[in-house]
Amino acid sequence: MALTASDWSRVQDLFHTLADRSAPEQFEDLQRLSTDEPEIAEEVRGMLEADAAGATLLDRGMAGAAGDVLHPGDTLPPHQFGPYRIVRLLGEGGMGVVYLGHRDDVDANAAIKILANAWLSPARRDRFRTERQTLAALDHPSIARLLDADHLPDGTPWFAMEYVEGEALTSWVWKRRLGVRPLLELFLEVCDAVQHAHERAVIHRDIKPSNVLVTKDGGIKLLDFGIAKRFPALSASDTRSHTTSRLLTPQYAAPEQFQGRVGVTADVYALGVVLFELIAGALPYRLDGDTTGGLVATIRAAYPPNIRRTLQGRRAGGAGAATSSIGAGDLSGSEWADLDALLATALAPDQADRYRSVEAFRADIARFLAHQPLAARKATWGYRAGKFVRRRWREVSLAAAVVVTAGAGLFLHTRSLTAARDVAIVEAARTTRLRQFLVDMFQGGEQGSVPGDSLRLGTVVRNGIREARGLTNDPLAQTELLLTLGIISEQLGSFERADTLFRQSVEYATALHGPDHPETLRARIRSAVLLNSQGKIDTAEKEFLAIEAVAVQRVPADHPVVAELNQVLGKLLAERGKIPEAIARLERAVAQRSRADTVSREYSDALRELGNAAYYSGNVRRADSLFRRALPVNRLLFGPNHPNVGYLLTNLGILASVTGDLETAERDLKEAVAISAGWFGEHHWLTAGARVPLGQTLVRKKQFAEAVPVLETAILDMSREPQVPLSSINLARNALGHAQVGIGDREAARATFTRAARELRQILGAKHMNTMLSEASLATVLTDTGKLDTAIVMLRDLVARGSAAYGDAHHEVATFRIRLGHALLLAHRPRETIELTAAGLRVLDSLNPTQTDVHRTARSDLEAAYTAIGDTVSAAKYRRPQP
């Protein structure tokens, strides 16, 4: 008997349900189904068999990989797979077997996949090899990593992957009853993982909820790249068609995939289906056709799906517990219209009407979260104006009172601020937004804006102060404008004027609100920030703590001023070298900012400061992750050529440089220099600040002759600007010293390092990492010029100081040990070298296994030291393989 359209739909649903279950569970369910519906059971069985025959490591999660040829049942293989010993079977099927492996030396688990009977089919070996190569090309925190790969003595190939334990995305979201906004924020992480794959020429082709796991810590892991397709020179907008013979997951497959074609927009479509399902608790279409043409016809006839109607229909039909808890009343009508437009663009049946890339899809989701106009909606004036007012109503109300006219450089005042708004909301967030609005007008907050230097800022600020002081009938606006103008004055280096404005703002806020009010505390915070900028660090810290004592007693814990206080105090503590305290403060700030808005300037700034502190603590990986989270927010808010983007690129370039990825570092840092030069000018001190890490990277690349003029120019440009701290100039001198060593001018280098170390110790203190790095550079020059006794004394002191201040696991403290070991080796003390250098290398390998110059120096020194004591066996372990 032929199946009807509704029967076919039931087959589809049953297939998706059973595909994620184990083989014994599938067998039992099919046996029960065969009793009542034998035709449907037979169709489902056929689909499951086809799916298993084409399955790869991640088709049903790490534990669901299939293979019944090699070592079936519970028998474990006798082999050691590289450094991994087998613990237990995870899954087996037609393509091979997956075991849980454990690496004892680092106490870590991995999933070990073995290709069963590899000699029987060259095609299967090629497929296995392709899967391994695809996984090796992907390096993203939301994608399970390839760890190792090799062959057994009999030629059987295997590879080890990160072992992932988690829950399917839909189940995890629905159990926790996530609302639309937190759901979308989580979904952005899925988009990031898919976009990473696309940037490396990999199309996933089978995105569905069971292939997206949420781990115990709430992180995303994208699985099942076994059927992914790799193409040379694939661009983000590439939509070239390619054929595939694998059975599709029909509910998530783009229409063109039924015709054997696939491009990056197929992944966009699948992401759209998953997002629709997460929000609505149901799929966008019931596919009733029993042929390829019928499935495509169903999609085209039902397009576009309406998410509110789906929600209402699900509610009316009595939704079960394990589905979305979102209701039609959770968003406004205009917000639902935006979501419909967004999903309709992702789910367009024709590729040409779809988002051209995952990046474009992701950007519109971020715009939705930020209350910004969507690219998916027609850009009418009314739509964009409505979005602007909703997103920045405080700025709009301020603009009714104050207009900055760039050509005349004047503030023009009108008296109306909206009076009927809820006072508590205004007090909670108004100043941050108002202040940032005006500051952005000086710096430029949108792509294509003219840099602030062209506005004759001094004149504008002076006229603004005069106008603000005339707002005696509007004391609230007057207080806020004085505070904002003080911030702008501080940024322009006019510290005395800024101090006056901040004092007046504190005075007016106290009179208007009282001494314990959040707005008064906010003004005091800015005054304390200015103290820090002027080098009055102790006074600033005392003032911050005094403000906190009031805030703890008088201000709700989730008030924006508490987040601001944690953020600025965390930054100050980091600058003082009090890293654990700084990180604790900044983590609280990030958590507070994220609860308010994850697509905001405030959230991005908190991520950046926490990233800085993480770097100071030696946690390079965490710092990189935090900067990468902040970067897309800044690009979305300000455009790709804004100084904030350049700042983050500078930080990412520095991290890439210190971890040995020098090509990436040079690329990011040159982009950062270009952004800064375009905004501020070639010889502005901020441009010079981006040039310094570029010079450091050129030194690491041994391009010394190119590095010297870059660093000399940076030092000269920074020295002209009184606002630049001497510590920054001396860090540039430290880099210049290394370049001078590289070109053979050791005397010049010694003089440069000596001056930098002396001034940094005076400014930052002996325990600050930047001071110690400069002293370590001087010790290295002394080592290289034969002054070993002095160098050894300096390096022993650095190891002791660094260990006390930052701990033995800090990557720079480990580097100090390796440098001391090198000096001791030259002094013919190999046993001390072995102890110190081996300890330092263990730390570096645990933090960053990428082999940098420091790693190579340590291994070379260990080989020489073991050889010197006659231990040739140990020496061989560190010998570099001959090319």
CA-based shape: globular
- Strand content range: 5-15%
What is the alpha-carbon Rg in Å?
31 Å
Number of helical stretches of at least 4 residues: 36
The strand order across the widest sheet is 1-2-3-5-4
According to DSSP, the number of beta strands is 12
Stated plainly, the CATH topology of the domain at 168-381 is called Transferase(Phosphotransferase), domain 1
- What would you call the structural class? alpha+beta
- How far is the first residue's CA from the last residue's CA? 68 Å
Class of the domain at 168-381 in CATH? Mainly Alpha
Q: Report the CATH superfamily of the domain at 168-381.
A: Transferase(Phosphotransferase) domain 1
Q: Provide the low-confidence segments as ranges.
A: 53-74, 232-247, 378-435, 440-456
How would you state the average pLDDT, rounded?
76
CATH architecture of the domain at 168-381: Orthogonal Bundle
